[in-house]
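Entry for adenosine-5'-triphosphate complex. Fields follow.
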Amino acid sequence: MGICWSSASVNQSPPTTGQLSSVGVSQNTSNTTSTSGSTVSGNSRFSAASGSDSPSTVAGQMLPHPNLRIFSFSELKASTRNFRSDTVLGEGGFGKVYKGWLDEKSNTARNGSGSVVAVKKLNSESLQGLQEWQSEVNFLGRLSHPNLVKLLGYCWEDTELLLVYEFMQKGSLENHLFGRGSSVQPLPWETRLKIIIGAARGLAFLHESDRKVIYRDFKASNILLDGSYHAKLSDFGLAKMGPTASRSHVTTQVMGTYGYAAPEYVATGHLYVKSDVYGFGVVLVEILTGLRALDPNRPSGQHNLVEWIKPHLYDKRKLKNIMDIRLEGRYPSRSALQISRLALTCVEKEPKNRPSMKEIVETLERIDSANEKLRQPRVHSSYQAVNRRGQQPMQNRSPLHLRQEDLHRAAYPLPQRV
Ligand SMILES: Nc1ncnc2c1ncn2[C@@H]1O[C@H](COP(=O)(O)OP(=O)(O)OP(=O)(O)O)[C@@H](O)[C@H]1O
Ligand SMILES: [Mg+2]
């Protein structure tokens, strides 16, 4: 029998400074400036739930301790039919994610019956695995909000580390924006708006807490979708407690995903709450254009989406030329322009010039309700304009399957600029 964490052993505050004493692993974070003494108060109910009139402020909660079920390895093995390849839902830097079936009564799995879950299994080659696993358990195990994916439990036996989540039927936003094949239908404009509002609410909830949580890995692959395209944030492996009131940032080893990580963070290791807002802006641009944040297959000068597209986001005419061709012009141009201008503010160089997530949610909700009134789909000439300009058809851009060059997308330590 291997080591299985008891509830007690994970009942610690989310890792904030240095040592994770229960397993004797030290984090690679310096955190010197502002996280000292940054424990999360026992019953801190997130203030996002109260004190605001905004419809965006849906109740959420942070529990004092992770409230998780401990699974045995054999149970999860059976639930995924021995981690069979046809149950694989996807793969990231941590390892493969499998679809599993749990029979609640007997605690054993029956193929194709029982409740459906997603089981993430640590890849033995993953360098950041243990720390990310602990962070996930300590953050996501305690956070509860309609726009955060539910972590149901975990397993740690010998070298096996696994996480068990609610199953998100429609997979990730990344699949829908960049996937190809007959099973991937282009997302209509209204669905894109719904998804980004949900994701914004999840992030706003984290930022509006008494002690702010910095998510640090906002990207399309971490936005998961249920059967109704209700968005939930997943992956808290890189999450960090925000700075204390007297500080503007925490200092930490630079981790994240190229293309989404905020420039000030990559350059200095200074992580602001508003560093998340930069990543949010990048996803807004991906949603508008249907192009990946970073794609080394694009011509030089176009690898970094935001740097390349920025000059097109100010102007209605220019915007039309870069909108996702899979929308086929079916979107209200006014809303698209409002969103692109919002994206521009999110990717401002100076963190303090970026809007807060609360402001972003309010703006998106205003755009959405104005959109409601114009539900009639309108076809713009932009579709033809894009094709005239010779933009490549979608199937030649950004295939989803894992290629060698896609490995850069996984979250990993980013080298600092000198
Ligand atoms: N709860 C879930 N329900 C359904 N599918 C899931 C779930 N969690 C993950 N997946 C699928 O597994 C894929 C891999 O997820 P994972 O979080 O491991 O990696 P990633 O986000 O793509 O990359 P990274 O490791 O850089 O975060 C996702 O893109 C998604 O398709
Ligand atoms: Mg992920």
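NOTE: Residues 31-166 form a domain with the Phosphorylase Kinase; domain 1 fold (CATH 3.30.200.20).
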